[in-house]
Amino acid sequence: MRKGDGYPADPVPLPAVPAGLPRVLDLVVSGRATSRAEIARRSGLARSTVGQQVDHLVARGILQEIESGESVRGRPPRVLTLSPRAGTIAVVDIDLLASQVAIADLAGRVLASETVDVRTDAGPETVLATVAERLVGLLTRCGREPDRVREVVLSLPGPVDVQRGCAVRPTGGMPGWDGYPAAERLGSRFRAPAVVDNDANLMALGEAHRQQVDTPLLFIKIGTGVGAGLVTGEGEVFRGADGAAGDVGHIRAVGGGDALCGCGNVGCVSAVASHRAVVRGLGIPESTDEDPLYGTHALAERVANNDPPAVRALRQAATEIGEVAALLVYMFNPRTLVLGGPLSDLRDDLLSGVRAVVYQRALPLATRKLTITSTQLGASAGIHGGIALALRDVFSPQGIARMLVDDAGEA
After folding, report:
1. How far apart, in whole angstroms, are the C-alpha atoms of residue 238 and residue 198?
2. Which PANTHER family does this entry report, sorted A to Z (predicted)?
3. Strand 149-156 and strand 88-93: pairing?
4. Tell me: the pLDDT tens digits for 277-309?
5. Do 113 and 387 touch, CB atoms closer than 8 A?
6. Partners of 246 in the β-ladder
7. pLDDT tens digit sequence for 131-140
8. Do 87-203+382-394 and 211-376 have matching folds?
9. Under CATH, domain 87-203+382-394 is a member of which superfamily?
10. Which residue stretches of 120-181 are H helix?
């Protein structure tokens, strides 16, 4: 397994990847070349080198070469694509009340996904066993082999130590998760590298990988707490020195007063402007036995019906989030600011409130080209971010080397 980023070092040194092979693989995976001749033309590699690398990848079950359905004179042309046997990505997006699991192919296409009604307060062993079982079910349904999972990505709603692959002192609703080796457990279950990251980081990465989205991109998730993720202009997640970057929910709110936060302090943004704070302030239960997301649904209904207390509470939350967003715009000067989480589904009220504060508080130089919008991927943003993170690892030189070693043992 890869050293760093949440999983241990490979047990034996990996061999060098043959020269030209990553370029050949990248051209096929990206769809920019579908034949040996096209690869040679676009890569500048000799046809003999291309032929050797393609044969190598086909023999390992990573690429497949099939006859095109097009009608042409003479032999039908042969088309190169990723083989279904090349492997699968598994992604788990944990939230306090309900989670999502998904599998994707190595082209980044989601093959199957589903929601898992398991609460984080059931403890990490129960939660991880449940989501692992669902992932195996998805793999079986799609005809994918569990032992050909190339990487597992786990998203957690709280501070994360990416190097150790675990949560670090999460606040509220996650008993037993502090320091629990989540990456190691999931990695062992699928015998694959595993990485754990913060949910806002992966949601930011998911949004940043959409087409025609400008970076740097700042994502603010407004859920049970308030968190932020930043993707740089180079497409990297900014995590800070210890992975604590973006934990903005514990900045003191302008109107925070003495509201007690789960971190033990008072007046934090999460204590007054999170989804949890809004529904609790309105006396709405967060969940029921019949509906784990009851609070989300009930608040949306009350806002849709122009219930005055609900609309006022949402606008107050938008003002507090806007103050934090303006501060972050000053600090990082993003090109795109995206709002996500349950409150972002109430787009007009929340979005207009945040925009008003940001444009009022931030200087024109920081806002003149800034786009402020709601998430386009919705609840699946973290899943897409996890896929993007995994694919970068899988197609890194070390990931390709590991893939070749694994498949050589099966050939």
Report:
1. 11
2. GLUCOKINASE, ROK (REPRESSOR, ORF, KINASE) FAMILY
3. parallel
4. 999 999 999 999 889 889 999 999 999 899 999
5. no
6. none
7. 999 999 999 9
8. yes
9. ATPase, nucleotide binding domain (3.30.420.40)
10. 124-141
Query: What's the pLDDT tens digit per position in 215-249?
Result: 999 999 999 999 999 999 999 999 998 888 999 99
Amino acid at 163: Q
Domain ranges of the chain: 87-203+382-394, 211-376
In CATH, which superfamily holds the domain spanning 211-376?
ATPase, nucleotide binding domain (3.30.420.40)
Residues 329-333 have a mean pLDDT of 95
CA 114, distance to chain mean position in Å, is: 15
Question: Could you give the CA distance from residue 164 to residue 172 in angstroms, rounded to a whole number?
Answer: 21
- pLDDT computed for residue 172 by the predictor: 79
Here the tokens at position 173 are: 């609703």
Q: What does the alpha-carbon distance between residue 382 and residue 378 come to, in Å, rounded to a whole number?
A: 9
Taking CA atoms, 126 is separated from 102, 171, 182, 276, in Å, by 18, 19, 12, 24
Ramachandran assignment for 300, one of left (phi > 0), alpha (psi -120 to 50 degrees), beta (any other): alpha
Q: At what angle do helices 21-29 and 397-410 cross, to 10 degrees?
A: 90
Q: Where are the alpha helices (DSSP H) in 265-369?
A: 269-273, 275-281, 294-304, 308-332, 347-361, 364-367
Angle between helices 397-410 and 381-394 (to 10 degrees): 80
Q: Strands (DSSP E) along 133-181, which ranges?
A: 149-156, 160-161, 166-167
Per the DSSP assignment, residues forming a β-bridge with 81 are 64
- Evaluate whether 344 touches 170 at the Cβ level (below 8 Å): no
Task: Flag whether pLDDT at 12 surpasses 80.
Answer: no
| CB-based contact 205:237 (threshold 8 Å) | yes
Distance CA(347)–CA(208), nearest Å, equals 20
Report DSSP state, residue 4: B
Angle between helices 36-43 and 21-29 (to 10 degrees): 110
Which pair of structure tokens corresponds to residue 132? 């692992």
